[in-house]
Queue: 3 jobs
Job 1
Amino acid sequence: MKRNTYGWVVHRRLLLFILIQLPISLIQAQHRADSIFIQKLFSTALVQKQGYYFLKDLCNHAGPRISGSPEAAKAVEIAYDYLKRFGADTVYKQEVMVPHWVRGKVHEGYYLSGKTKHTIQIEALGGSIATPHGGIAAEVVEVKGLKDIKNFTEKDIKGRMVFFNGPMEEEHIQTFKAYGGCVSQRWAGAMEAAKLGAVAVIIRSVTMSVDYYPHTGSMGYNDTIKKIPAVATSTIDADRLSKELKKNPSLKLFYNIDCKTLPDVLSHNVVGEIKGSVYPNDVILVGGHLDAWDLAEGAHDDGAGIAHSLEVIRLFKELGYQPKRTIRVVCFMNEENGLRGAIKYGEWAKTNGETHILALETDAGGFTPRGFSFDTDDKSYAFINTWQPLLHQFGIGEITRGGSGADINRLKGNCTILCGLHPDSQRYFDHHHAANDVFEAVHPRELELGSAACATLLYLVDKYW
Amino acid sequence: MKRNTYGWVVHRRLLLFILIQLPISLIQAQHRADSIFIQKLFSTALVQKQGYYFLKDLCNHAGPRISGSPEAAKAVEIAYDYLKRFGADTVYKQEVMVPHWVRGKVHEGYYLSGKTKHTIQIEALGGSIATPHGGIAAEVVEVKGLKDIKNFTEKDIKGRMVFFNGPMEEEHIQTFKAYGGCVSQRWAGAMEAAKLGAVAVIIRSVTMSVDYYPHTGSMGYNDTIKKIPAVATSTIDADRLSKELKKNPSLKLFYNIDCKTLPDVLSHNVVGEIKGSVYPNDVILVGGHLDAWDLAEGAHDDGAGIAHSLEVIRLFKELGYQPKRTIRVVCFMNEENGLRGAIKYGEWAKTNGETHILALETDAGGFTPRGFSFDTDDKSYAFINTWQPLLHQFGIGEITRGGSGADINRLKGNCTILCGLHPDSQRYFDHHHAANDVFEAVHPRELELGSAACATLLYLVDKYW
């Protein structure tokens, strides 16, 4: 009896041990297997650099590719070809009508200090109307950001040019936070100034970089408010102008732009897929935007995001990973000045009853990735967080709750997880919407780490959801 | 009785609640207070950028500052002045004799393909002897890294030049790991080649960057082995040479360098302190190295580390933080080719019975910081890890066990915690020891985030140790 009891105790302990240890061992083994596969994703991206070479092609051959331009049409063809080449089993274009704003050729700006003419660098904001033929000259009222204009009256502003000189606040660690607090002067400056009778607007570029590049970007008009032209000037020119205005408040600023809005143009989102082997109707999406502002090559914004997305398909193919769910890359058109591609895709997905498990947007540059932000329910977020130690091993463990991106926002309510890739943000706004957003500003390894980060998240969602 | 018993139960529960909740509340309040102070460290560094302006001075006015040079002496004066200006209450120079190697003026390299002369970019490795007057020409044996030379015999090598063409392995996420696997050809290549009768050595630059910059760095000789000259060539030239050798194995390579080693020179470590208000004998150290290779300004290597260290003192002063323990900045001399400053400081600290709680070395560039590696006992490491969530908030939560740095290594055994700052490593070796390690390659915000990261760690150690 005693022996038997003892034997039962031993057996019970052994059983308990097995019951506890087995799942732990299985989890550990699984963790190791995932770790090995993810390391392969990173190594393959870093060694082969195919996303980087795609980006070179996109920047060199499509270049500045604002919606509606021949360059944007060229970008559609390049993305289509690469998706096929990278191994997507289905590639198609989704038609979408896009706005067609053109900058024109004239962009001249100066002020007079005594009899000396001081040229300043200016570029029209995207969507601005032209100045009257020959340009516009007016006295200048300096305003520190959009909120500050509430301290001025029609008497101060009428017939004058408003100079929005609100800087990005440097104390934020995340530059996107500083951008969020400052970009309103670009979007709404012309409307608010026009309400008080201003004849034109000039804004300080939304960047922390101290240089001579004007940074463009979209601006809004309202049919109930008079439309006035709006330009951005560089931070160095903004500082000079501000200094000069203190000495000479009646200084006149001149500028001349000849941009215009043409009729809408037929364009395309480009979609590529690897069909899921088990749940082909479950879609896991990764995407960025194909269009870019017309001042440069849109290497970081958002050639990098397209490169990341295309690389996800290529890396899976290269490593022989057959996803259970459908991996879909969407290269959205017209993020910068209309979001027509996003709207189109969102409507189509809804009408078609597409089941999106996750949509990952990458539109924050080709810098070293740090993690992801998630817009999802508590249960899904908790589940994602179980991957944090694994992601941490690869330097992408910064998991936060937060916004995802403008292009996938239309899927909200029809997609379990919306999320955004978070690369290091320090240098992003140095290049954002300016002439220095060129291929050479992208580091091959930093870009490819982003590709591997996207592939890692999609792999985990595909495998464990 | 019943009421009393019930009352006791209630009181006991209340007491239990208080006993559990009070420390939690206190910890939370403390965590909030720390979080607020650390945010101030970051904001102040990012807005004021004084470390960045110091770095500009160091790069512009001391420039290339190899040990023993007038530029290194100038760097000593600049660091001394800034430590005073930044608020150290004690600043002094610590005498140390340093090696004095000079590159000379000649650095010419070419090979002949048929009758066409192909120039290649070369620079002497630090410490190399000169070629015979007029240069050296020899047939070339290509070897893939140091291990590969074991596949060759004296018959293959004798009278020839060995071309070590081992690349940095790109599959590693951390570039320092790839460096560690490749740098041996630079350090030991000349010795191993000379053993087999080689007349000279040329190595592929230890970088992943595809460009025309030769990257120098220290090399070793051994008195029992014949000394032969050694140079680095750029990665582009290394690839061209390798390709050419496949077509023409009897190709002759010529190079000419006139470097030499002069007698040792008196130089200095520079030390600055804020004396501790409670435990002045407990030292918390942060440092980097003042010397830099002579090809460029040593902005990332290691002007950035000196800037970080000086900023710690300035930030504490600026924010009125009075440390309990002594905060000591050490600007080490001669890290690159001798470690004499490190040896001197280590010996002095031992002789003087200095109590070091923590020594933090920052010598991995001025890029966005990610975390720290710690070389310490289990208990201390566990304690440091309790700060991880707080550090994570500021993007510096990557806490690992590992090496610290060459300059503080001499304190091992006499310092509770040795640690190293880990910035993002992707771009470091693009600039390392090459002519493009210039001030303009440092991003002001990335640099200052590093300053704030160092200040954060020192603050936590000072407050909670």
Note: Residues 104-258 of chain A form a domain with the Glucose Oxidase; domain 1 fold (CATH 3.50.30.30).
Job 2
Amino acid sequence: MVGVVGAGQLARMMQQAAIGLGVPLRLLAEARDSSAGHVITDTTVGDYTDYDTLSTWAKGNTVVTFDHEHVSTAHLESLVADGVIVRPAPGALVHAQDKVVMRARLSSLGVPGPRHAVVEAADGVAAFASTVGGFPVVLKTARGGYDGKGVFVVDDEAGAVGVLASTPDAVAVLAEEKVGFRRELAVLVARAPSGQLAAYPVVESVQRQGICVEVTAPAPDLDPDLAVEAQGIAMRVAAELGVTGLLAVELFETTDGRVLVNELAMRPHNTGHWSIDGAVTSQFENHLRAVLDLPLGDPTPRVRWSVMVNILGGDAPTLYDGFPHVQARDPQIRVHLYGKQVEPGRKVGHVTAYGDNLAEVRERARHAAAWFEGT
Amino acid sequence: MVGVVGAGQLARMMQQAAIGLGVPLRLLAEARDSSAGHVITDTTVGDYTDYDTLSTWAKGNTVVTFDHEHVSTAHLESLVADGVIVRPAPGALVHAQDKVVMRARLSSLGVPGPRHAVVEAADGVAAFASTVGGFPVVLKTARGGYDGKGVFVVDDEAGAVGVLASTPDAVAVLAEEKVGFRRELAVLVARAPSGQLAAYPVVESVQRQGICVEVTAPAPDLDPDLAVEAQGIAMRVAAELGVTGLLAVELFETTDGRVLVNELAMRPHNTGHWSIDGAVTSQFENHLRAVLDLPLGDPTPRVRWSVMVNILGGDAPTLYDGFPHVQARDPQIRVHLYGKQVEPGRKVGHVTAYGDNLAEVRERARHAAAWFEGT
């Protein structure tokens, strides 16, 4: 009995894997009418920020895990003190919740990342900028960001004033150098409580307005040494932080040929959706196996190339009408719709194409997603 | 909104495909505590033999389809008269429900099958036996059989007396020659209302006490002409009978090198479970696409060999304890548990292995299933 906090598409896709494993999922959902609430029978509708609600629900589970990283560390520590098994544990998860904590820890481990500083006022941002070659610099709220939210690029001290004025006093702000990067990469690693690790290949991800829109697995034309380094970073971080479940490490491949850690997530991740159709074991199944302390499945790709393209909400009120053309044009395309209300820019599904010819695979996936989006 | 009558593992595995397609399933279940009832939120518990229950439920669906073939033809015809879309339609489904109707229709189409006759008394069985070279002959109740139930091999007229005495007066009994066969084969075809067909490769199935226990896809060492003939039979039967959804054709490969139709089913079928992991598009997804009149997905195998072995209930009360050894021994094995109470001999799950070396693949699948069974 695996409890999942949060009823988005990640919990929904966990359910597909859970059905195969014969493992019941229990959901704590923000609403019954939610992506995962539609497909998980044992759903409690409640507010995870309310400790009594969270705690009462959590005690019915063998293990508690997450669709998102928004549950407060204090709540999770209380659950653990009450005997609930939480995976990842709050002491690991905090590194995916708080960018200040994450940067400090990775620096202490010597893991490569952008230069950074905690800033409190605009003159502090300017002082930091002067140490990294000047503006622009990136400002990030320590907590609460996702899909580009809470991340700002500022071009001067006046810009920093505006951003800092818009953030609550209680939330720390991190300044980071704006890294010149060739592209973004990501590595997913599943880690079991036993310490067993399974690392997926390094993938290339394309972001638009802070949202992951396309992933190619494995990352094309990646220097083999850099691939080993990236996987090594992810496995080391997973082990040092004591992650149980999936760890996603988002990286910059810099223009001068290094990899720098950008973000961490501790749950199934958009950069791993290709694995449902493209790998021997999907990220969703391996997340469940890891939090249940079962032996991990093989993360190896089944095909030369997989390309995943997100479907973002467009003008069409329903995605269903996209099927006839998309499926008739490409009988091999894999479509995943999330059962969510279509709203402009919202992640409402994804498609995956796979095959031997990268250019063709990419064109197939892009065409299918664009058709569903109505563009 | 696809309504499914019956809450067994076939409906459960349909749900995995439906989640991906973003298509809501609605279930008419014999009990909430059922294989599919555990994983489909919109479940009505009710008795499909009660027309009011069936009809009230059915009217909320875009299309109604099946986990099993036990709904009476009369009920289905009434639903259709009431405007419910039923796929497969009752005029097609009756060929999977009534072996007498099926044999008559296939004979009229010239589709090869065992010699057969409807029998009413033991002397009729003896008369039939004398036309096919003598006893033993096979007696089958026209309706209600599955997993070997309703099928009897009788060695003499006295045996026929016993079987006929055990069958209700209302049910017709079919006598068939006992075919000398090399092995059993099966072909699955999905057919959309548009007439589009997608044929899976011919597979070899192994039955034990009337229950399918192992399937190899594709059937090894099959004469290519015979493979074409078998697929041709399945596609022709699907078209002539107007099947919508999946048609499974079970065949004998005779010792003298022919194929004869043994049984028909019109739903996802045990001989197609390999397709979840081994084909581009699973039988469950193609069944849903067919009944929704969406373009069909590619049924091509993704790998050289797939072997599916059923897990039958054994002494262990739970299957979960099988995971640590099975998954540690074989990180590529695909396990599917059905969330059913373990009872001796009951189908409670299956495993699929795939790869390039048939002997290895078969050993992996057999070992995993045997371990779950506790043997």
Note: Residues 95 and 137 of chain A are 22 Å apart (CA to CA).
Job 3
Amino acid sequence: MPQPFIILIPIYQGLTQLDFTGPYQFFCDLPNVDIKVASIGGQPVTVEGFSFADLSVLEEITHCDLLCVPGGNCTNAIENSDFIAAIKRLGQGARYITSVCTGSLILAAAGLLKGKRAACHWAWREKLALFGATPDAGRVVKDGNIITGGGVTAGMDFALVVIAEMVGEDSARAIQLRLEYSPEPPFHSGNPETAPKAVRDKVAQKLSQQVTEKSPVLECAARHLSID
Amino acid sequence: MPQPFIILIPIYQGLTQLDFTGPYQFFCDLPNVDIKVASIGGQPVTVEGFSFADLSVLEEITHCDLLCVPGGNCTNAIENSDFIAAIKRLGQGARYITSVCTGSLILAAAGLLKGKRAACHWAWREKLALFGATPDAGRVVKDGNIITGGGVTAGMDFALVVIAEMVGEDSARAIQLRLEYSPEPPFHSGNPETAPKAVRDKVAQKLSQQVTEKSPVLECAARHLSID
């Protein structure tokens, strides 16, 4: 039996849990993988109603084959220098560097996306440019060994692309069938282009405020990166 | 402020975590909800790589407005008489009785689906008939106050249907936009009708074995139900 393929998912307070629990479910069906979900100090990560516990200690992990960084309140992760140092170190040694949603901003702040195209949540996407990355509106974007997914639920499409890359399309199709991934959204409102104007304006205004509030953190991280 | 709307998600060892973490992410965006994730004794539920902890104690919860039962190795839950008693008690008092994937078999084993139509994972769906329910191949199935989703990833479509029912379509559309739910599966293999034959045959054979192995538990539960 060859060494298991190590998939590392680093998590943090304020993450959007579906960014990782979605791809996680798809990765779980792969043979001979070791999936580590890790946090700084192995500390539990809480969301409303429960915690993620029994996590690996991020700083103690020496290597992974695939790094998958989820999004959410990404500036919490970006402001934590230990977290960013671990992402940089583990990303540099990984075969695949990946993210879902605003996880790409975390990869970018770790200096892993300079000159690369990447996906991100639609409301945050343009901020990738601060770090020398090229924002791409694709649902899943591949640039060399970097594979990034768009907002939250893009994690499922992303997982299938990653799995096809790792072990081939038929294995991805088999997992898709097991997880019955034949989406039928009851509404057409999943991105700013398809959402009704009133819905789009309301959501965009709210998210735009959040992005504006957090922009100084991103700008500071970008300055720090260019000094490194 | 009115009393919060209580959403209860009972979990158990062997569940498929995405069955609940998917809808959970959508429900989290609702105003004035109290989402409780509960297990027998409040015990942690482990999956590969982490645990769900800080759970509510299922037996101590007196009421919920929406009961949402995830699937997975559903016979683990069905064989636990305390779990099934709690599902029956809480379902009878709930405004909405819901499930994702084989969670509908758990609702059925609790006697909550007699004479009702329900969705389920495609490989397990026909087993609903053991409990007097009518298997329905729909992605999301509504029958009165019972709303059930198909296999695993159907939980996202299910959540939007439930949210539209609870608070209206525009709220559902706003959440869909925030979570960027505009799926683009890279392959067409999400159900037995669309999967390539070789993929379908392999997956169906494997799942059919699992269903056959677990059938005695379902048959026993069905006999028990008709005696009640």
Note: Chain B touches chain A through 70 residues (CB under 8 Å).
